[in-house]
Amino acid sequence: MKPNTDPETPAASGRAIHRGLVLCHDCHKLNRWDIKQAHAIQRCGRCGAKMHPRKPNSLARTWALSITAALCLIPANILPIMTIISFGKGQSDTIMSGVIALIHYEMYPIALVVFIASVAVPVMKLLGIWILCLSVQFGWNSSPRQRTVLYRMVEFIGKWSMLDVFVIAILVALVNLGALATIEAGHGATAFCLAVVITIFAAESFDSRLIWDQEENRNE
Amino acid sequence: MSHSTKSLPEHGHLTACHECDLLVNLPHERVGYRLKCPCCGYVIVDTRYDALGKTLAASLAALLLFIPANLLPIMAINIGDMGQSTTVLQGAQLMWQAEYFWVAFMVVLTAFIVPLLELSLLLSITVLAKLRRGMGFVVSAVKVYQKIRSWGMLEVYMFGILVSIVKLVDLADLVVNGGLYCFGGLLFCSTYAAASFDPHEVWEIVDETKH
Ligand SMILES: [Zn+2]
Ligand SMILES: [Zn+2]
Q: Which residues cross the membrane (chain A) (predicted)?
C-alpha cells in the first residue's frame, strides 16, 4: 500500500482505526475511539450517533440477507409477473417469457433493457456481493482496488432492477379497459420486489473497509 | 506503520476515507476543491462555489415541479372510444386494489414518498444552514437524508415510463401528456440538487454555530 503517491494530496498517515480514531457514519466527523471501552456505547461528539469502528456483524448480516434475496428470486422467476387479458383470453408472463415475447415482436432494444434490469442486474448484484464476502472471509489475494470498484458497482446498479416493477404498475394503470384488455399483476412481481429490497439491504450491510483491513493485515 | 498518536495533526483538518478508513489531511482552501482518496479513489470532499445556494434553488424548483408531475397524467391511451390516463399514484392505487400490497407500497415509497421527503429535507437543510438557525433540526435532517437516499428511484421510474411507451406504442394509440414533461423536469432538478449537495459544508456550519 502506497498512500502518498499523489503529490497533490496532503500527506496521509495510516488508517483511522490504528490511530484510535473512528469516522462517524452519520456526520463523517473523526472521533477518538476509546479502545478500553470497546464494548460500551460510544457516541459521536458532533451528532450523537452511536459509533462503530466497523459495521457490526457486517459479513454475517450480508450473507444472511443476500441468501434470502437469492431464495426470493426463485418464485420471482417461476411465478407470472403479469397477465394480459384481452377479449376474454388470458396470457401470463413470467420475467423470461416477457423478454422472449419482446424478442418475438422484434423489439430488441427494449428486450435487452428489460433483460438487463430484471435478470442480469439482480443476479450480478448477488454474485458481486458473494464475491466480496468470500474474498474478505477467505483472504483472497485479488487487488483491493478492483474489489472496491466491484463494491461501487453493486451499490450503483441495485435500484435499476425495480424497472420491471414500475413498468408493470404503469401498464396496469394504463391498460385497464374492462372488456377490451386488462393487465393484472402476478405474484412473481411481489417476490421480485422483495428480492430487490432485501438485496439493497444486503449491499448496505457490507462494510467496504473490510476489504482494506485484510490487505493491511497481509502487509504487516 | 507507526501506531503513535504524537504527530496527529489538529482534528479539524483530518478526516478518514468513508470507504477504506485511510486518514487524509483536509486542505485549507474551502472552495473549488475536490479531494480523492489516494488509496481507493473515493471522493472524500467536493466543495464547489456556493453549493448551498445551488442545492437550495434546485430543490425548490424540483418541489414546485413535483406538484404537476404527480397531479397531471403522464400519458394516456386510447383504444376505440375509451381512454385511460395515469399518474404515479393511480398506478400504485390500482395495484393496491388488486391486493399487490408490496408492489404498491414499493412504488409509492420509491417514486413518491422518498423523493418528496428528500427534496423537502434538502430545502430545509439549505435554508436553515444559510440562516445559521435550527441546527438541532439540521443535524437530524442530514442524517435522515443520508439514510433514505438509496430508496429514491425517480430515475428508474422515468425509465419505466419510457419502456412502457415503447411497449404500448404499437398496440394502442398513445398520447403523451404534460405530466411527462414535468416529470422530466423534476428528475433533472432533483438529480442536480442531490449532486450539488455538500454535507461537509453543512457540518462545518453546524460546528461553527456551536462554538
Ligand atoms: Zn456524528
Ligand atoms: Zn479511501
A: 63-87, 107-140, 160-179, 185-203
